[in-house]
Structures are given as structure tokens and as C-alpha cells.
């Protein structure tokens, strides 16, 4: 397939708007998977199936025959196309995964639920795609629902993103209505991948995982040239050279093809021993050539940290093994060893966000049978001392006020939160945000009944219970997304909890001065009841 007959695209959507269902229908329509295989194909992890959310992006290649009218012959022309569908997670915590998937695409289907309309993650995902210069095809899905109002959604898309209403496709991934327009639109509206077929091979490493039998499997997008079995390729990041043992496409399982050409997305197996050698965002290129590395991805930022300890201290080795295996396939978690006087030996783990942390814990238990105790999540604070040196504190217990150095300033990370709510809930949401030390940035209406609020909030204030409270005060209607923003100066203190006069390191927290009294009292109260019982 020459690049002109290749299209690389993603599906982006707010959680639950039907992205995975639509992906499944497209795979069925092209005969890539059989109808009625049960669970969603691209959601492979057990936790994804259980929670119905996509965590890790997956890729599948489809073949599709596209027919167009030929005005000269008054007949039709049919050509076969190779379409690479790159799945993306919808949840706020995984926007890193989303931008990673978008790097290999030239276009995206922006799926919006016809009844719910644009939601917080629709906005976040739209801007990720827009900033990557992708062609965006709006798909208004679930038009079979009795409350569907596609015209209202079209008006929202026009108002928020300046999308022409005539561009929107109307579909039901449930009944199949409108689905036949989707792939022709992909072919006609999304440009083919750019690249030079005659140059030495150059590719972007999109993802990697470890397979017990095959070793490290890398997902790659070929930008220039071709890669064949037996070729030698080098990593721009490490300078190491590998032989290509196997190369092919995901159709949807690994299907060897012996070669991948310019514009294609597929897999490559080399002699890499560990996924640590396969740096996501790295450029792999023909060995012994000097190439310009491709622009990589934004590096992962760990925003939520928590201690992970074995429930039974003697299980440290088993936990260590389980964490090592899991991080082999989730390079976005950072892990360092730590010791607590209360909990023994364990690990300090850094996550992209709260859901990412929950998913990690759940996978540790489900896939590796590890029973764990995790400490209260915290965010990375920065403290400055009198001598102007700065430290980043990821474990509150590590902050020592009596180390002989005076702390002169503290900073905490903030986020810009986008909240979409029916207008009757604006009052309570504003109250919640000010209680959480938020600063209003924007307050607009996206249609007659829905408001959009933007707040700058300290990250600390949203990692514990914010989302649940937001959902409960808005009867479940609020949608929420956030992006990292800058650090702000803040009046922070360390709060120790003493048991029998001794501070318990695992319970230390860093907290805003004004909140310390209230939160401390509540915590001690709970603890007292717990210890008494
Ligand atoms: P994440 O993977 O978490 O991002 O969610 P998603 O956007 O992939 O949503 P998913 O495909 O899992 O669909 C969410 C729910 O909506 C499921 O219960 C689907 O069966 C249902 N659904 C999907 N498409 C349609 C549709 O066209 N009509 C109706 N009525 N329901 C649909």
C-alpha cells in the first residue's frame, strides 16, 4: 500500500460516549473481527472490561474497499485502503496516552453522545487533536436514544470549536445506523501520512509491552522508508542497534508481514530484553545512518504519589516482583523503594492521576494477587530553604523541619479544571470550588441549559474526594477534566499524627495552614473510633 492509500486515525471522546463500541463496529464492518465476539475488542485489560473504561491505547489495522464514481467512464472505481485505527483512553488521567496515540495520526473521529452533548473531556480531547493539526471528523453517536438531540450538539460544536454543522456524521453504534458513512469520510477527509518512501527507514516508537513468549513488542509508526525482517535498526535515544526478528501489523492480533512501509503502523520484535530499552517517543532508524530524531512526546509528569506496602510485611519480595512485572507494561508509573517504621519495606509510586493510581492497585491485586496497603495520596510540593536551595517532596514524612535549615517558601502544583454542568447546579459548584481554594477563570454557557466553569485549583484539593463530591452535588451530571498548570506559592505546613507520643510516618501529610486544624481533628477523631473498636 503506498501512503496515498493509507489512513491513520484515532477515535476521541468523553468517557462512555461510545468510542469503543464504534471501534468494534468498524472492525466488524471491515471483517477484522467476527460479529458478536462479546466484550469490546480493543479494551483488553481485565480492569478495562470491568470498569468499562479504556486505559491503554491499542491499535488495529483494517482493510477497506472504497468505491468512488468516475465521471469519465460513468462507472465506479474501487480501491483498497489500509486503515490504522488507534484507540485512545477517554479519562482525564490518561491524556498522556491520548497525545501519544495522536502523534501517529493525521485525523480523528470526535465522538459526542447525541443526548449528553459536549462534555469536559470532549473539550480536552478536541484541543489535543486540534493542536496536533489533525483533521477532525465530528461523529454524533447514540442517535437511537429517545433523548437524542443532534441539532443541539451540532450547535454546541459550532459554538465551541467552530465546526460546520454539515460536517457532522450521525450514527448509532448500537443499531448500526449511519455507520456506512464513517470509513468513506475517513478516506476522503483525512490526509494520507506524509513521509519519504525512498529515505532510510525512520519510525516513531509509540508503545511497548512485554510478552512472555515473544519478548519486547514495540508498536511503531513508519515515517520514512521501509523496515524488513533481518534489517538492523538503532535507537536514537540509546544508540543501541538491534536486528529485526519479526515485523507485521495488528490485524487485530500480531500478523507477520515481513515488512512495514512508509505511513504504516505496526509492530516490531527485536532482541530488546526489557521495555526499559524501548523508550516511548524514541526514534528508531536504519543502523549506521545519522538521522534527525522525530519530535518525541511530552515527558510523563507524575502528579500523585503514594506509598505501596505489602499487607503482610513478609510479602515484600512478592510485591516487588509484581510491581516489576506491572511496570514493564506501564512505563508511566515511577517506583522507588522506601521504608516506613510503621509499615516496613515498600515502594513510593508516582502516578499520572488518581484513577491511574486506582487502576494500578487493582491490577496489582487482580493480575498478580498482591495484597497491598497504600498511604494517603500526596502531590509533589517544592520547598525552598534559606540558602535558596530547593527540594521536591513526594513523601511528606521526608520533610524534616528540624534539619537545621529554615524553610523560606513553599509551592504547590495547580491545575486548570473544566467543569460542565446543567445551569441549576452552578451555585453549589462555585461553592465547592471556593471551598477547595479555587480561583475562577471562566464562566460561560455552551447552550441554553449548560454552563462551563473554569477554575485554577491546587492539585492537592482535587485528588481527595473532589470528583465524588462534584458528582454528588450535581446529581451525577457534572463532567470534569483538568490540565496541569503552574506551581503557586502557598502557606503549607506538615501535619504529623502522633500515637502514644510518637509520630507515625505513614500518616504524615502536607496541608494548607488554614485547613490543618479541621482536617487534623477529623482524622484523629476517626482514628480514635477505629482504635477503640
Ligand atoms: P471509554 O472506553 O471508557 O472511553 O468509553 P467509550 O467511549 O468507549 O464508551 P463505550 O463504547 O464503552 O460505550 C458506553 C456505553 O454506551 C455502552 O454501554 C454502550 O453499549 C453504549 N453505546 C455505545 N454506542 C451506543 C449507541 O449508538 N446507542 C446507544 N443507545 N448506546 C450506545
From TrEMBL:
GO BP annotations listed: positive regulation of translation; translation
EC number: 3.6.5.n1
Annotated GTP binding sites: 13-20, 87-91, 141-144
Any Pfam family matching the protein: GTP_EFTU
GO CC aspect terms: mitochondrial inner membrane; mitochondrial matrix
CDD domains in alphabetical order: EF4_II, EF4_III, LepA, lepA_C
Residue ranges of domain Tr-type G in the record: 4-195
PROSITE patterns (alphabetical): G_TR_1, G_TR_2
InterPro entries: EF-4 (IPR006297), EFG_III/V (IPR035647), EFG_V-like (IPR000640), EFTu-like_2 (IPR004161), G_TR_CS (IPR031157), LepA_C_sf (IPR038363), LepA_IV (IPR035654), P-loop_NTPase (IPR027417)
GO molecular function, one term: mitochondrial ribosome binding
Gene3D superfamilies: 3.30.70.240, Elongation factor 4, C-terminal domain (3.30.70.2570), Elongation Factor G (Translational Gtpase), domain 3 (3.30.70.870), P-loop containing nucleotide triphosphate hydrolases (3.40.50.300), Translation factors (2.40.30.10)
Places the protein is found: Mitochondrion inner membrane
Enzyme class of the recorded protein, top EC level: hydrolase
Stored HAMAP family: LepA (MF_00071)
Role noted for this protein: Promotes mitochondrial protein synthesis. May act as a fidelity factor of the translation reaction, by catalyzing a one-codon backward translocation of tRNAs on improperly translocated ribosomes. Binds to mitochondrial ribosomes in a GTP-dependent manner.
Stored PANTHER family: TRANSLATION FACTOR GUF1, MITOCHONDRIAL (PTHR43512:SF7), TRANSLATION FACTOR GUF1-RELATED (PTHR43512)
Record-given protein name: Translation factor GUF1 homolog, mitochondrial
Organism: Triticum turgidum subsp. durum
